[in-house]
Amino acid sequence: MGSTASSTGPLHMLFFPLMSPGHMIPMVDMARLFATRGVRSTIVTTPVNAANLGRTVDASAARGLPLSLHVIPFPDPAATGLAPGQENLSAVPTAHFNTFVMALFHFQPPLAALLRDLRPDALVSDSLFPWTAALALELGIPRLIFHGAGAFPLFVLSNLVNYLPLDPSTDSFTMNDLPHPIRLHRNGLPELVDNFFMLKLLGEAEAKSYGVVVNTFYDMEPSYVDYYKNKNHQGIKAWCVGPVSLLCRAAEERAKRGETPAERDRVLSWLDSKPAGSVVYVCFGSLCHFSGPQLKEIALGLEASGKAFVWVVRREAAEDAAAEAEWMPDGFEKGVEGRGLVVRGWAPQVEVLGHAAVGWFVTHCGWNSLQESVCAGVPMITWPLFHEQFINEALVVDVMGVGVRMWEGFRRNRLEEEKVLVRAEEVAAVVGRVVGGGGEEVEAMARKAREYGEAAGKAVEEGGATYEDVTALIQELEAKRKEGQKEK
Ligand code: UDP
C-alpha cells in the first residue's frame, strides 16, 4: 500500500462524478459543501462537461471557496463507440446506456496518473467507476463512494437478495419485516440488477472502499439511514451529507444547471403571477425520453385538469417545429395561455420548486428531484420510469407519506416493448384532485411535506445532523492523514 497525501495544507478531496446531470449536479454541490468547510475540493471531469461547469465553479472560486476543476480527455470515440462530443449520459440515447458505462473503463490511465500526481486525502468516486477502488487502495487514498441514491434505495437494494422470490414468475414481493412493509415489482428494479458483471464489480469495489457519502439527511429516512449505516449492511461506513441542493443558494453558482438566464426569468416571473400553492410543476429529470403519443397524453391531461402548470419538455422533443408538431395537440399553448407554461429543454428546477406558487410536483422520482421537492416542502405525484425510481416512489408514498401515485398497480413505460401509455384522463384525474386542495388526506400530505422541508433546512445548519456528519468525516480524514504521516 502506498502512502497518503503528504501535503501539510488544508485537506484535499478529489470528486469524480459520473457524467450525467443527476450525478454531476449533486457531486458539484457536494464539492462546494466541503469547500465551504475549508477543504480544498477538485472536481475531475471532461472538456464538454467542464465547459458547462466552468461558470458555476468560477463563481464559487470568486467568493473565495477552494473549489476548482481538473479536465481530463473523454476517451477516443474509436475506442468507445460513442459519437464525438457525447460526453454526458443525457446526450446518449437510452439504448446506448451500456456503451456509455463501458466507455467509463477507459478513464483508468488518466485518473491513475492524476491520483499519483495530486495524492489527495480522499477520492469521492461515483459508484460506476468501480475500478477506482483498487487504484485508491494501492495508493493509500480513502475511496468514498457516491451512488447518487438515498439510504432507503441503497438499503433496499443491498438487501434484495433476502426478499426476491426465487420463482421468476412471481412478479411482486413485499419486504414486510421493515418499519414499513415495502411492496415492489420485479420489473421495477434497476436495470443494473440484471447485469451480473457490473454487480460483481460494484460489490467488490464497495468491499475495498472506505465508506459511502449519501445525499440525504437523517430525518428524511431515519430508520433506513440506521439500517444502512449500522444493521444489515456489513459494516461499511456512511455519512449523510445532504440535501446538497440546499447549499447552492446563489443564482450564479446554480448556473451550471442548464437554463438560460432569459428562460429562468420568464418562468419565475410567470410563477410570480400565480396564487400560492396553485401550480403543478411537471418534470421528468434529465434522461427521460417519452414517445410522441405519451407527450400528447400529458399535454391533454394537463389541459383537462383545469389546473395551472409548468411543464418541462426535453429539448429533442421540442427542438424544432417539426419535432414538436408530431405530438403537441393543435393550438395547445394558445388554449392554455395564462394557465400553463411549456418549458423547452431545462427549467431552473430548484428555484421553481422553491417558488410559493408551486403546490405539487409531478416527478419521475429521480433521487435529486425527490430531495429538491422535500427541501422545498412540496408534495409529489409520482411517475417512476427507470433505475431505482420505483423504490424511491415507495419511499415518497408509503414511507414518508408525502405523495400520491399517478396510477395504482404496477406499470412501467420506459422500454418500447413495454409501453403502456398513461392516459390523459388519468393525468387529469390525479392532478385535478390534489392540486390546490383535495380534502383532509391531501392536506395532511402537504403539511408533512412542509415539515420535512423545515427539517431539511435544520439538518444543514450548524449543529444539524448533516452538519455534524460532514464534520465527523472531515475529522476522520484529518486523523487518517496524520496517521499516514506518522507511518512514513
Ligand atoms: N433538472 C433541472 N431542470 C430540468 C431538469 C432537471 O434543474 O429541467 C435537474 C434537477 O433539479 C435535478 C437533476 O437535474 O437536480 C435531475 O436529477 P434526478 O436525480 O432527479 O433525475 P435524472 O436526471 O438523474 O433522471
Please estimate the helix content. Answer: 40-55%
Structural class: alpha/beta
Largest sheet: 7 strands, parallel
Number of helices: 20
Q: How would you sum up the global shape?
A: globular
Uncertain regions spanning at least 5 consecutive residues:
none
End-to-end span in angstroms?
12 Å
Strand line-up of the largest beta sheet: 3-2-1-4-5-8-9
Mean pLDDT: 91
What binds here, in terms of ligands, is:
uridine-5'-diphosphate
- Strand element count: 15
Over all CA atoms, what is the radius of gyration? 22 Å
Please characterize this protein's 3D structure.
It is built from 20 helices and 15 strands. With 488 residues, it is of the alpha/beta class. Strands 3-2-1-4-5-8-9 form a 7-stranded parallel sheet, sandwiched between helices. A 6-stranded parallel sheet has the order 12-11-10-13-14-15, sandwiched between helices. A two-stranded antiparallel ribbon has the order 6-7. The radius of gyration is 22 Å and the shape is globular. Bound molecules: uridine-5'-diphosphate. Uridine-5'-diphosphate is lined by residues 21-22, 25, 257, 283, 285-287, 312, 346-347, 349-350, 366-369, 372.
